[in-house]
Design goal:
Elements lengths: L1 H37 L2 E12 L3 E12 L2 H20 L7 E13 L12 E14 L5 H11 L3 E8 L4 H26 L3 E11 L12 H4 L12 E13 L1
Antiparallel strand pairs: 1-7, 2-4, 2-5, 3-4, 6-7
Helix pairs in contact: 2-3
């Protein structure tokens, strides 16, 4: 009996120590949860934008040919497209690219008059070969277009100016966005009569590079022989920063 009483006393002592340990261990976590729940913040959004001169131009020209048969349309297109590619390669630099971006061959159907019910009939074929040029020679874009025109291209499908690497401009835009976010938070804190402490969270997002122009020229426009003037202008890089500041 004495041994049983002593054993029960030992078990009770062990349980008491264990419960006390659980209470002590859980106390910091409870205080942390309470602090997080009562933490006060101010959330703002800052935006920044920088402009830069483009160092990369993307020009897309096309050769469009028609023929009474698919073979005729494709054959004529291949001959003229080869001449266009050779002309472009003679003007670009070693770091520039000339690639085929799109090729299509489609039937051309006879047009029907209003109210006339006729079965669709193929009267020919249209072949189109688009060639894209990525060049760092910004000042030579007009000469590229003229060379493509002289070699046989009859469309300019697109012209874009951009940056080959926008990291430097992106960092500058983020710095502007951060300064704007801080200024907004300080204004809000002053209006509310509180003091900013530290950054609780921050999320950054960036926008696309905004090109100065994009246009398309058709066959009639490509027939003009006057030198093509091209003004690259500037491109814009933007960033947005959402920041939450703790206050007291």
């Amino acid at each position: 009996m004495r041994r049983s009483a002593a054993y029960r006393s030992l078990v009770i002592a062990i349980l008491t120590v264990t419960v006390a340990s659980v209470i002590v261990a859980s106390a910091p976590s409870a205080r942390a949860d309470e602090t997080a729940a009562t933490r006060r913040t101010i959330s703002v959004t800052g935006q920044g934008e920088v402009t830069a001169s483009p160092d990369l131009a993307v020009v897309t020209v096309a050769v469009e040919t028609t023929g009474p048969s698919a073979t005729a349309a494709v054959g004529e297109n291949a001959k003229r497209s080869a001449a266009v590619v050779n002309a472009l390669k003679g003007l670009v630099g070693k770091d520039d690219k000339v690639t085929t971006s799109r090729y299509s061959l489609e039937p051309h159907y006879q047009s029907s008059k209003p109210g006339e019910a006729i079965e669709p009939r193929i009267v020919g074929y249209v072949a189109r070969n688009e060639v894209q040029v990525e060049t760092h020679k910004i000042d030579g874009v007009g000469a590229l277009i003229d060379a493509a025109n002289s070699a046989g291209a009859n469309r300019v499908s697109g012209l874009q100016f951009t940056l080959s690497n926008r990291n430097e401009q992106l960092r500058a835009a983020l710095e502007k966005a951060g300064s704007e976010a801080r200024a907004q938070a300080e204004s809000v804190a002053k209006a509310l009569g509180v003091t900013l402490k530290e950054v609780a969270s921050a999320t950054a997002s960036t926008g696309p590079v905004i090109q100065p122009r994009y246009f398309e020229r058709g066959v009639a426009a490509m027939e003009a022989r006057a030198p093509t003037p091209i003004e690259p202008g500037t491109v814009s890089v933007s960033a947005t920063l959402q920041v939450a500041y703790t206050i007291e």
